[in-house]
Amino acid sequence: MSAAAPARRELDNLLTRLTALHPKRIDLDLSRIQRILAALDHPERRLPPVIHVAGTNGKGSTVAFLRAICEAAGLRVHVYTSPHLVRINERFRIAGVLATDAQLEDAFAQCERANGGAPITLFEIETAAAFVLFSQHIADLLLLEVGLGGRLDATNVVDEPLASVITPIGMDHPEFLGDTLIKIAGEKAGIIKRGVPVISAEQQAEAQAVIEQTARKMRAPLLSATQEWHVGVEHGRLVYHDERGLLDLAAPRLFGRHQFDNAGLAIATLRAIASLTIEPAAFEQGIARAEWPARMQRLPSGALFAHAPEGCELWLDGGHNADGGRVTAAALADLGERIERPVVLIVGMMANKDARAFLANFSGLTRHVVAVPIPENDNAMEPEELAAVARAQEMRADVAPGVAEALSFIASMAYETPPRILITGSLYLAGHVLAENGTLPT
């Protein structure tokens, strides 16, 4: 047994106890997080300067670009993101390094004692633990990603962030955020603070109007994509410009046209913060180095290749809503223009997602879907139901009991050209794929 095993075991036991403290996985309300933070003597008031990030799609990638640029500039950066893919440690990055099991066990134990058995959701106590950890370690910045929504999210207890960032807003989690884009945008815009700069990605008109209205109400300077700043692709390079001038940078390492937009949002954010001075070289290095797992991530090797067709390409993306499917499909189309291969999707989705709207994005790219379950998840969509949705869109749809079996089935079809296989539909599925393949996020 390794020396780390006892700490991991105690951490797992702690998380099991904490999960049982609230009957719901999600219950948007600030009273419980405010109570536990007060019992912990307000670690949220002792944090490094915060950049707060909300939105529907692209939050994680934008945070990855922010982190990579800042670290290239020599800054120490804490990061809090969700959900994790394989290990909970992925959510907590302390000055550039994932939190250890022992550090997490200690922080969660402090929170458990302070909470005293009162009802609290797991995400709320995770957020409290993050604030405990980050308040105990010196850094120049904290990149704080919203878990769900914004207005009532547990992260929305920081009164004076350096900047509020809003990535593209779309229809997702209507059962919690509202059944219209306007309602969802109102929840996301709830992170806007009085007088604090707001940097927004390009938005649909309804969402943009909500953001503008909220920013005016809070007297918060608003810098919106295509208005105060612009990002584009020229000769394969990222070209960004605003009132301060132009940056001609290397293309992002993260694949897909949408990653140019996410990188532009990160650049606009850092240039909007008066207290930061980032040189062009740091922007160049950060954009080229940034990594974020399960976002059009190519898997070059691993255990799953024992089942896959010889010579195939294997890609992984955690997209799970209509807008996420759109940008992933666009990235697949770009790949097809470079090197054409038959495309096959392996898809697993949660039951509360709009599978029809997600899969519609791929109807012109593939005619073959293999539906799989999401392991250890009672809220996953049944593969047979998912396959029926695909068939209704005139795609061939088969069902497999897991990703390895799906790959074996695709291999049995003996494509003339080795296929390009995309595993997609859920971050929960992506996490299982990374674990099964032996590709652990670091």
What does this structure look like?
- The chain is of the alpha/beta class and 442 residues long.
- It folds into two domains: 8-288, UDP-N-acetylmuramoyl-L-alanine:D-glutamate ligase (3-Layer(aba) Sandwich); 297-437, Protein-Tyrosine Phosphatase, Chain A, CATH 3.90.190.20.
- 39% of the residues lie in helices and 16% in strands.
- The chain is built from 15 helices and 17 strands.
- The strands form three sheets. It has an eight-stranded mixed beta sheet with strand order 4-3-2-5-1-6-7-8, sandwiched between helices. A six-stranded mixed beta sheet has the order 12-13-17-14-15-16, with helices on both faces. A three-stranded antiparallel beta sheet has the order 9-10-11, covered by helices on one side.
- A hairpin with a 2-residue loop joins strand 9 and strand 10.
- Helix 4 (101-115) crosses helix 5.
- The radius of gyration is 22 Å and the shape is globular.
- The two termini are 22 Å apart.
- The mean pLDDT is 96.
The H-level CATH homologous superfamily of the largest domain, spelled out, is Mur-like, catalytic domain
Give the N-to-C terminal Cα separation: 22 Å
DSSP strand count:
17
Low-confidence stretches: none
| CATH fold call of the largest domain | UDP-N-acetylmuramoyl-L-alanine:D-glutamate ligase
Specify the overall morphology.
Answer: globular
Rg computed from alpha carbons, rounded to a whole number of angstroms: 22 Å
Into which percent range does the helicity of residues fall?
Answer: 25-40%
GO molecular function: ATP binding; dihydrofolate synthase activity; metal ion binding; tetrahydrofolylpolyglutamate synthase activity
Pfam families: Mur_ligase_C, Mur_ligase_M
Domain Mur ligase central: 53-269
Cofactor: Mg(2+)
